[in-house]
Amino acid sequence: MSANVTVAIVGRPNVGKSTLFNRLVGRKIAIVDDTPGVTRDRREGLGRIGDLTFTLVDTAGYEDANDDSLEARMRRQTEMAIAEADVILFMIDARAGLTPTDEHFSRLLRKADKEIHVIGNKAEGRAAEAGLVEAYALGFGEAIPLSAEHGLGLADLYSIISQAVDKADEAKAAAAEAEFDYDMVQKPAVDVDVNEDEGEDLAGDTAPMRWNPNRYLNVAIVGRPNAGKSTLINRMVGEERLLTGPEAGITRDSIMVPWEWEGRVINLVDTAGIRRKSRVQKKLEKLSVSDSLRSIQYAEVVVLLLDATIPFEKQDLALADLVEREGRAMVIAVNKWDLIEDKNAKILELRAECERLLPQLRGIPLVTMSGLQGRNIDKLMKAIFEIERTWNVKIRTAKLNRWLAAMTEHHPPPAVSGRRLKLRYMTQAKTRPPSFIVFASRPDALPKAYQRYIVNGLREDFNLPGTPIRLWVRGGKNPYVDDDGK
């Protein structure tokens, strides 16, 4: 049983909101640590209890701040989550009892005119009994005893959310009945042509394999701290969805933000800024970096965001190399382009540096933009779609072998230990990224330089700029040739 019901978990810092969020979504996707204030952005996930599914929102710990400090901006993110929620789970620490912050927060929640339930977390053992009694003073009725760490008290949560689901179903049914046009019942059905092909067929010798350009696309935005990743995503989606500010390292969790561009759903993933490993000392930053690296592994396209004022730092190159080794499609976006005065000279310099420093990704798309002003977002999306298309390309085997014969004729494999190597056959094993197998007479002896020669030829002759290319050399005979050579 499911409905479009949004449940927000709110409360002061360090009461266990992210722990409950992870338990209900069934994965440890929100960073959890004993340090207060770990969560900063609001994170959404699909919550489940029994047969119920619902949208679950984890929020930053509420702190009273009236200026434009980081805490005040975090509080505004929580207030947005409250405004969008159908049910609010107001979590307190049952062992610590009520605090002035809890009481102040409860007064603000009453103004929200929402369905509010108090959750007394860390309620295992007798130490929590006094705090659960104190919760009556908040004015929301009896607190639900719960242990997010150990999964106790979920049955009471099920009862609360199931009632909200029933109300949502009733409201949806009433709205559908009110909008139903009874005159349409007498009208004949209209035949609709349905295109059953999931993928697009490309002309020529290349074609995508199992690629549907209408499916959703996971795009991770990565880069060094303060490169403007959260600002860019906010500009793309048209709202202050993510916490931003002048401070470096604001983002901690990797936050996925669904967005639609030209009729296609794009899952934008904001990640924490990644510094050099030697500078990452604190445990919390290590958790954030690990979360960012995991986002790269699950993305299909990675946007490496550079700061135009200090591009191609050592850490930028390390991130680009990591994305290439993971086999993800990548676009380089040079942000803060509005700060550059001589733009023509700078773009020539950037392209030359890109070709020199990233030879393994020759031809990678490079887009200049301003996330703050929203400039060239359309060019960024065009580059993303183009690199995704290249990442999904499938080259026909017959074409590959004709090409391999021409390549070896132009530049034959070298002789090793007095014996010349033979490349007998080539095929594409998979896409995403394009991966090829070459069958050779002595696979272990084929020099790395000749393998690079083949990869560079593939990239140039089959128009595969910027995408990682995998090449495996195997022993064996051409499967289409008999043992007698015919």
TrEMBL record:
Keywords: GTP-binding, Hydrolase, Nucleotide-binding, Repeat, Ribosome biogenesis. GO terms for molecular function: hydrolase activity. Transmembrane segments: none annotated. This is GTPase Der. The gene is der. InterPro entries: G_ENGA, GTP-bd, GTPase_Der, KH_dom-like, KH_dom-like_a/b, P-loop_NTPase, Small_GTP-bd. GTPase that plays an essential role in the late steps of ribosome biogenesis. It holds the Pfam family MMR_HSR1. Associates with the 50S ribosomal subunit. SUPFAM superfamilies: P-loop containing nucleoside triphosphate hydrolases. It comes from Pelagibacterium flavum. Belongs to the TRAFAC class TrmE-Era-EngA-EngB-Septin-like GTPase superfamily. EngA (Der) GTPase family. It comes from the Bacteria.
